[in-house]
Amino acid sequence: MAMLEVKDINVYYGLIHALRDVSFEVNEGEVVALIGANGAGKTTTLHTITGLLPSKGGTVTFEGKDITKKPGHEIVRLGMSHVPEGRRVFSGLTVRENLKMGAYTRPKGEVESSLAEVYKRFPRLEERKNQPAGTLSGGEQQMLAMGRALMAKPRILLLDEPSMGLSPLFVGEVFKIIQEVSAAGTTVLLVEQNAKKALSISDRAYVLETGKIVKTGKASDLLNDDAIKKAYLGE
């Protein structure tokens, strides 16, 4: 059974039919990429999975539980964390305070050990733990958003455009961290504009076009697919 199964979800913004019968699955231990052009519906898909947008029909199942109508805070408790597009850190709070916000579902006695784990993965966050999050660079804020999501000890991590607006150096660092998180046992669903980079670290991928899944396959196969190269890889 798939860890996460999305089946025939339909989402509307007013009269605009944003997602049309979208179906896909993510198996435990995989890194699965969802690629597509701007406006294809990638962010809408993640928002629907994590309870931020309602679906007009269809189901979202996580570890055998129907979470289609569950609110976001309950979905986090079940073991799913969402790193939103644009990072969305609490700019007036310190780095440490932001990280602790990610641990609100955890027993108090485990928070400090989780902080230590996050600092080990992101040493820069420990160096800046008392700084307001709004004073960090874009790359550091992305690390903070990822660290905050990991504080909840998720079994699956949903990442929305983690490389957006980052320097090439930080892009490389962020993708290395995604691979490390996956290797440590967390399943990953990755939405990413940089299709080449996303496919290079993923097991499988789905291609979304104007609210529909139009192609799926092994990430390595899609990297060598001429139509995908032309449309998304700039080749």
Could you explain how this protein is built, in words?
With 235 residues, the protein is of the alpha/beta class. The protein contains ten helices and ten strands. It has helices at residues 42-49, 72-78, 95-101, 111-121, 123-127, 138-150, 168-183, 195-201, 219-223, 226-232; strands at residues 4-13, 16-26, 31-35, 59-62, 65-66, 80-83, 156-160, 187-191, 204-209, 212-218. A six-stranded mixed sheet has the order 6-7-8-3-9-10, sandwiched between helices. Helix 3 (95-101) runs parallel beside helix 6. It is globular and about 45 Å long.
Brief overview:
It contains 10 helices and 10 strands. The chain is an alpha/beta fold. α7 links the parallel β7 and β8.
Q: Report the end-to-end length measured between terminal Cα atoms.
A: 36 Å
Regions with little confidence, pLDDT below 50 for 5+ residues: none
The tally of beta strands, per DSSP, is 10
Globular, elongated, flat, extended or rod-shaped: what is the shape? globular
The secondary structure category is alpha/beta
Percent of residues in helices? 25-40%
Name the strands of the widest sheet in spatial order: 6-7-8-3-9-10
* Rg over CA atoms: 17 Å
Amount of beta strand:
25-35%
Task: Break the fold down into its secondary structure elements and pairings.
Layout: E1 4-13, E2 16-26, E3 31-35, H1 42-49, E4 59-62, E5 65-66, H2 72-78, E6 80-83, H3 95-101, H4 111-121, H5 123-127, H6 138-150, E7 156-160, H7 168-183, E8 187-191, H8 195-201, E9 204-209, E10 212-218, H9 219-223, H10 226-232
Parallel strand pairs: 3-8, 3-9, 6-7, 7-8
Antiparallel strand pairs: 1-2, 1-4, 4-5, 9-10
Helix pairs in contact: 3-6
